[in-house]
Amino acid sequence: MRAVIAEDSVLLRIGLVKVLEMAGFEVAAETGDAEGLLRAVEEHRPNLALVDVRMPPGFTDEGVRAALMIRQQWPDTAVLLLSQYVEERYAADLLATQTGGIGYLLKQRVADVEEFVDALRRVASGGTALDPQVVAQLLLRRGGGPDPLERLTPREREVLALMAEGRSNAGIAAELVVSESAVAKHINNIFAKLDLPIADGDHRRVLAVLRFLDGGPA
Amino acid sequence: MATPGPLRRAYDWTAAHAPWSAWAWRNTALVVAAVPVAVPAVLALAYTFSNPGHILKTLGFVLLLNPLLTRLQRSRFWSLTGLDIPKIPWARPWYRWGGLIPRLRAESTWRQYGYHLVVSPLAAVGGALVVLGWATGAACAFVYSWVWALPLSVRPTGWTGDYVAFTILGVLLLIAMPWCAALVAALDGRAAAVLLGPNRAKELERRVEDLAESRADILDAADLERRRIERDLHDGAQQRLVSLAMNLGIARATLTDLPPEARAVIDEAHREAKEAIEELSNLVRGLHPAVLEDRGLDAAISGIAARAPFPVELTVDLAERPSPTVEAVAYFVVSETLANVAKHARATRCSVQVRRRAQLLTITVGDNGVGGADPAGGTGLLGLRKRVGSVDGTIRINSPHGGPTVITVELPCGL
């Protein structure tokens, strides 16, 4: 699998290259700004772009805008955004069109190398990786009207939050220290309580997460 | 030191007010100096009386001399009696573009004009009379010393009663003259202080304006400094720490064949590096987080609300962003109150509302905790009050024992 990196801090870039190589990626290009990133993606068509949100010249949301363009023009390239802080609007923008192949993590998470490697692989293979902080902030913004989520037990909400972060059943089981079959049971309860149609499991999963995030499509 | 006796005090008082005392001569000098400065106004007045048709020209002439005359009068009072009449502060000299019109419209100019046209000639008359008084007094008091020099034809006859009366009259006049000079000087000084200086209310108003402006500057500077520190920490220490933690994480993940002791050391170092990152980001969040500068209050507040250890119901309604200073205070208010709720209230939920109506930003933080928040006690609420006060905001704390607590902060944001 191939990856490109857009990160303006040289120090972090060096570390990220090491982690990507450790995770089995071949780093095709490194760049320090959004323009360079778009050129690199066009040239190398990587599986994954690892992108810093704040980059020159404006140091605001260059990375997010580049990520949206990449997802639109080169859907085969997954994007994992790294940010100094969480702006849930960025996450909402990113998740508006697709929920796969997208990641949004706080920069400091790269310190947990193993988990970060998991997130890299998950996103590159079409999954999602949302920072717990992103999920918490998105959760704040729902409100008004009867909420189907109110029907969930605290445990089911925990499971749903971890699903939203992009974890697999095994990952959720490890995090909550329960068996995988218990997780599966919780997930089925969630599907039932949220009135989600019986269909392909992954699709229902995405719908549940969307419901969770913004009361999205029923 | 013993208190001086009554005799001694009477002597001192007399010496201080004698015709030869410094006091007498300072006042005399002041009133005498009023005479030459009044010459233009006196001439103008005299000319007006003889040619009433030219009244505008002559009055205009005095008005033209207004700055010069005011300066002369100020230095007369300052150098002779130490009376300091403050200057009227003008943004530009009168001969520059935009300097003349404000002067003509200012009431201070017309007060000064009144002084030069009315008080100054009167003071000059007073001065002249004082000079005359001194001269007459001296002439009479010392009549014996010079009367012999007069030719016999004009010398008053007889050496007796008349001359004694002259002498007594002269001495009385000399004793009285310091008081006359003091009276004229006092009246002149009073009039000058009122008419030549700045208006007291206006002066205070201007001072308040200056202070408000300089306070705003200081707040801005402090905010700028906080942002700079945040930026430095983020670009420097934080990046290095993240990089360090990442390298330790790589070591931990790849060096699997190390002895357990070495692995434990790496684990420990990795954990500490991550804790340092967490501490540093908490510190930065308390200062002035980048998200506040980049994305505004909404994003910054939802960040702290999501981090709270209880559910927070958040409503932010901002049509436009307030000034950076007000934003920083509002952010501080929310972060500080949420921290207080977490620390003291034992609440299970909390609501935060931020609304802007016209020029007022209202922040309401409510919780369902135990209440009893004391506005006077606790450094948290005190710091909050100070920070809110720094932008002329108000804070209301309603926290009965048993709860619930509602804190309402209003920040004016139209400056």
From TrEMBL, chain B:
It catalyses: ATP + protein L-histidine = ADP + protein N-phospho-L-histidine. The chain crosses the membrane at residues 29-49, 113-144, 164-187. SUPFAM superfamilies: ATPase domain of HSP90 chaperone/DNA topoisomerase II/histidine kinase. Gene3D superfamilies: 1.20.5.1930, Histidine kinase-like ATPase, C-terminal domain (3.30.565.10). Its EC number is 2.7.13.3. The keyword Phosphoprotein applies. InterPro entries: HATPase_C_sf, HATPase_dom, Put_sensor_dom, Sensor_HK_TwoCompSys, Sig_transdc_His_kin_sub3_dim/P. It comes from the Bacteria. It is an enzyme of class 2 (transferase). Residues 225-292 form the Signal transduction histidine kinase subgroup 3 dimerisation and phosphoacceptor domain. Residues 59-196 form the Putative sensor domain. Residues 331-412 form the Histidine kinase/HSP90-like ATPase domain. This is histidine kinase.
